[in-house]
Specification:
The chain contains 15 helices and two strands. By secondary structure, it is mainly alpha-helical. The chain starts with 5 loop residues before the first helix and ends with a helix.
Length: 327
């Protein structure tokens, strides 16, 4: 691989973000179908979930299997607090984000201190996911249980306006992710992922950086869950269930490409395209996705984005190299 200057690398990275912003800006304008516009919004929402999980799992090997629970904590906390205070839920968003961040940070702190493996973290967080679902159903006086909890009017009547709001927040996610991964935190994350003992030997505080990743990832997940809840208008346990959130995100992220900027977007687009084809046979969804997840982890862990990058690089068509050669 030819070396490119930091300036060229930044240009290419921001060019990718600008391209995603352009595509998301144009997508809802090509159709007036409410179903297609909902599909486009879901692609953006799950891209946000994927990018948030990328911070925790992709870069620090903390396999969170309670993304749905963190999203639900954000959504339910925001909605319940707004209802209790009699204010718009936009005001109580920080409460939901902060609580989820506290939970994520605590989980990562415990896992790092106890030297949990990836499997142990997965089991630990899956247990919390199940506990969250039981809490929501069991405390129906507070959460509305299976009948759902209605979110107060968020003041946005147009689905198109809401779509652009969510898309703008996702572009903010991408900018934050890019800045984080190309900072000293990103360097520490990669060192920890490669070899924790070696990273610790050169002075990297494993517990501190893993906890930080857990806090940031959980807060981004919670904010996404809140916006998702606002769009739905009513919160149900099924919205944040393991099958609907965690399984889909893991497949999207693995398919698109772990530790890549565009992986979550590509993965989400491909998976929702597949889901559209399975619309007439929903009973096969979990079976097919489960098999797909196994195949991806065994034989296709690099993902589409890295495969395409390698293909372009072999043919001297890598964007960074092209920009470098023309500047």
């Amino acid at each position: 691989m030819s070396q490119v200057s930091p300036r060229t690398d930044r240009i290419v990275r921001f060019g990718k973000i600008a391209l995603v912003a352009l595509i998301f800006a144009v997508l809802p304008l090509v159709t007036e179908s409410p179903l297609l516009r909902r599909l486009f919004l879901l692609i953006v929402v799950f891209s946000m979930f994927g990018l948030a999980l990328n911070v925790v799992f992709g870069h620090t090997d903390q396999l969170y299997l309670f993304v749905g629970a963190l999203a639900g904590v954000g959504g339910y906390t925001t909605a319940i607090a707004a209802d209790a205070l009699g204010v718009t839920p936009w005001i109580t968003i920080p409460a939901g984000v902060a609580l989820a961040g506290l939970i994520g940070g605590t989980v990562s702190y415990i896992a790092a201190r106890r030297r949990f493996t990836v499997i142990l973290i997965a089991v630990f967080t899956l247990t919390l996911e199940l506990a969250f679902n039981q809490f929501v159903v069991g405390f129906n006086d507070i959460t509305g249980g299976s009948t759902g909890f209605r979110i107060a009017d968020v003041g946005i009547e147009s689905d198109l306006v809401f779509y652009y709001l969510v898309a703008a927040v996702f572009i903010g996610f991408m900018l934050l992710y890019d800045r984080l991964i190309h900072s000293r935190y990103g360097v520490a994350f990669n060192a920890i992922r490669e070899d924790e003992l070696a990273a610790e030997s050169v002075g990297i505080e494993i517990v501190r950086y893993k906890t930080f990743a857990g806090v940031v990832g959980a807060m981004l997940i919670a904010l996404t869950g809140i916006l998702y809840g606002f769009y739905e208008g009513r919160l149900y346990p099924s919205i944040y269930s393991f099958n609907n959130i965690d399984v889909a995100i893991l497949i999207m992220l693995t398919l698109g490409g772990l530790r890549t900027l565009l992986g979550p977007v590509v993965g989400a687009a491909v998976i929702f395209a597949i889901e559209e084809q399975l619309a007439d046979t929903p009973e096969w969804r979990i079976v097919i996705f489960g098999m797909l997840l196994i195949v991806l982890f065994l034989y296709f862990r690099e993902g589409i984005v890295r495969k395409v990058g390698d293909f372009l690089e072999e043919r001297d068509l890598d964007p960074a190299t092209l920009v470098e050669n023309n500047t």
